[in-house]
Structure to design on (292 residues):
């Protein structure tokens, strides 16, 4: 099994592009999975640099209905007309960010929604349930409840109900669980439902916390002076340390928060950027490959 980050906010490679967004390519068993597509077609260029054949992908998973995870879907479909897209039906609904009375559309780009709703695409799309087994050891789950450690990064995120806007309940968000050599890997996009809440639901599904978690924690943006909410970060870090889980975080965790968590959590947490690769050993262990 291996996971290559095809798009993320940062990169340390000269031949890899970075952009606000997220995309992972996953090889697991005989399956080739694309988890999110970033905000645009840039992930396609990165795939070429990492020798990833997007036409060979058989499974496309969209973590939630925001542009920075879905903007590359059109580019993917132009290269691949057979992969099954696993998506929450509510991800196709409009989503917004409201700040200082300004309403900004942040959902899946509207041209892509039109494409996905086209009758010819129907056979490629699978709307997932709250608990969806793709195959043994490959599971999607959604509708995460609980309000532990609410992140202010979710403030202002909304969905439309009739002619009004209501707080987003993130029922359009889903998470992926994979089993590899007896180890459980949990992959999230932004963890809008709360990383702790997601882990807790994962525990109810597989009977234990994940051995590895890969994804963003969706902290609030740092202030203009670069300061962050260290009190909240410390609380999250302390709770995450109670799980026997190794964390590879990225994207909406934000580098400033990661650096703070690294000081607290040490080797239990690492950052994964565009172009980085995770590879699993036969004993189930995982290492990050950076030597390209």
């Amino acid at each position: 099994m291996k996971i290559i980050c095809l798009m993320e906010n940062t990169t340390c490679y000269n031949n890899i592009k970075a952009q606000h967004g997220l995309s992972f390519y996953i090889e697991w068993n005989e399956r080739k999975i694309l988890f999110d597509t970033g905000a645009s077609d840039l992930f396609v260029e990165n795939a070429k640099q990492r020798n990833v054949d997007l036409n060979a992908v058989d499974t496309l998973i969209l973590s939630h209905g925001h542009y920075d995870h879905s903007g590359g879907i059109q580019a993917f479909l132009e290269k691949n007309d057979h992969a099954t897209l696993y998506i929450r039906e509510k991800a196709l609904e409009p989503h917004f960010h409201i700040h200082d009375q300004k309403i900004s559309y942040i959902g899946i780009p509207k041209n892509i929604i039109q494409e996905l709703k086209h009758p010819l695409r129907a056979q490629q799309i699978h709307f997932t349930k709250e608990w969806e087994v793709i195959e043994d050891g490959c599971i999607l789950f959604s509708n995460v409840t609980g309000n532990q450690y609410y992140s202010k990064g979710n403030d202002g995120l909304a969905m439309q109900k009739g002619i009004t806007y209501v707080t987003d309940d993130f029922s359009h968000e889903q998470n992926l669980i994979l089993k590899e050599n007896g180890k459980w890997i949990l992959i999230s996009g932004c963890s809008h439902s709360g990383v702790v809440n997601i882990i807790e639901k994962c525990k109810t599904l597989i009977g234990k916390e994940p051995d590895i978690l890969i994804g963003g924690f969706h902290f609030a943006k740092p202030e203009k002076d670069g300061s962050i909410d260290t009190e909240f970060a410390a609380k999250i870090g302390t709770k995450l340390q109670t799980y026997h889980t190794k964390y590879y975080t990225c994207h909406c965790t934000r580098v400033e928060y990661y650096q703070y968590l690294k000081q607290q959590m040490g080797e239990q947490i690492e950052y994964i950027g565009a172009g980085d690769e995770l590879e699993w050993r036969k004993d189930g262990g995982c290492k990050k490959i950076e030597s390209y």
Q: What stands out?
A: The longest helix spans residues 195-206. The CA atoms of residues 10 and 201 lie 30 Å apart.
